[in-house]
Design a protein that fits this description.
Blueprint: E1 6-11, H1 16-25, E2 31-34, H2 44-51, E3 56-59, H3 63-75, E4 82-85, E5 97-98, H4 107-113, E6 116-118, H5 122-136, E7 147-153, H6 159-166, E8 173-175, H7 185-191, E9 199-205, E10 211-218, H8 228-238, E11 245-247, E12 267-274, E13 279-286, H9 290-304
Parallel strand pairs: 1-2, 1-3, 3-4, 4-6, 5-6, 7-9, 11-12
Antiparallel strand pairs: 7-10, 8-9, 10-13, 12-13
Helix pairs in contact: 1-9, 4-9, 5-7
Length: 308
């Protein structure tokens, strides 16, 4: 199908996510990416002039800057474009639609109709993809204490972390966020429908991109006392027919590496089980720069523009 080109402004196109979005859109004929003169990127008047003439702006900015850009859009009234925010600033804010199309029935349609969409965090995408169907099905109680472990490539850590790893100054592996106040936790609580705050332990490895998010569970500690197959069946049913999220069989060797989905907008879920011990580990694999950032942004952009 041929579409008339729609104008897109990537506010913060020089950052990692912005660059990847621009790269994904470079060969598309149905969108026109509008750029601001780098010397005027902090000039509110120059930015407002661009915003008046585009259909959608994608914010790839620090939280404070994203809030300023949204305020600028709001000041334009009916002349302001729709907004897709890739920062953390509005992920649990009233009036914003969460940009995870596979979250629940009707979510993609809500994104398509929304004027304000928040792009999910990378870790949160994996965690919510596992938890939400199981909580909604009653296999995990919303108040059950859960621990989420995750490892990401260093590209998700910002400019300083990227420089540290690419210069060889960073360690091969490190835990971080051990103050237990990671910025993705509020959206995990909100969109996984949890009552109890999860214990979230992120880490980074010496590889550029790729991500594993894992949820260990003792089955007999769950009120429903499910079998591993029950968990897998609920997840498979929830994501049946979905283009970008799927449940696949766990590897028999009990191993999983994080980089296999790099360059895609896909997410895979596996249930590793030891039924005799009544233990499982459910793992989501994704590209932290794909379904965890720029890939999700382009998917949401397409929904907002009626392209999917």
């Amino acid at each position: 199908m041929t579409y008339a080109p729609r104008k897109i402004f990537i506010d913060g196109e020089a950052g990692t996510t912005g660059l990847q979005i621009r790269e994904k859109l470079a060969k598309r004929k149905d969108v026109e990416v509008v750029s601001i003169d780098p010397e005027k990127r902090k000039d509110a008047a120059a930015k407002a002039d661009i915003l008046r003439h585009v259909d959608l702006t994608i914010l790839c900015l620090p939280d404070a800057a994203a809030q300023e850009s949204v305020a600028l859009v709001d000041s334009l009234g009916a002349d302001g474009p729709r907004v897709l925010d890739a920062s953390t600033a509005h992920r649990v804010a009233p009036g914003w639609t969460y940009g995870f199309p596979e979250l629940a029935a009707g979510q993609a349609e809500e994104i398509a109709a929304a004027r304000r969409v928040s792009n999910p965090g990378c870790y949160a995408t994996g965690a919510i993809a596992i938890l939400r169907p199981l909580v909604d099905a009653g296999l995990i109680d919303a108040g059950h204490p859960v621990a989420i472990n995750a490892v990401s490539g260093y590209s998700g850590g910002g400019k300083q972390m990227i420089e540290a790893y690419e210069s060889g100054r960073a360690p091969p592996f490190e835990l971080y966020g051990l103050g237990l106040e990671h910025k993705h936790v509020p959206e995990i609580v909100a969109y996984a429908h949890l009552r109890a705050r999860p214990l979230f332990i992120p880490s980074v490895g010496n590889f550029r991109q790729g991500m594993l998010v894992s949820l260990p569970l003792c089955l007999d500690e769950l009120a429903a006392k499910p079998h591993a197959g029950d968990l897998e069946a609920v997840l498979a049913d929830h994501y049946a027919g979905r283009k970008h999220v799927r449940v696949v069989a766990a590897e028999e060797n009990g191993k999983l590496e994080p980089e296999a989905l790099n360059g895609t907008n896909d997410l895979e879920i596996r249930v590793f089980a030891n039924e005799a011990r009544r233990q499982v580990v459910i793992v989501a694999r994704l590209d932290n720069l794909g379904k965890g950032a720029s890939g999700a942004a382009v998917q949401n952009m397409d929904l907002m523009l009626g392209r999917e």
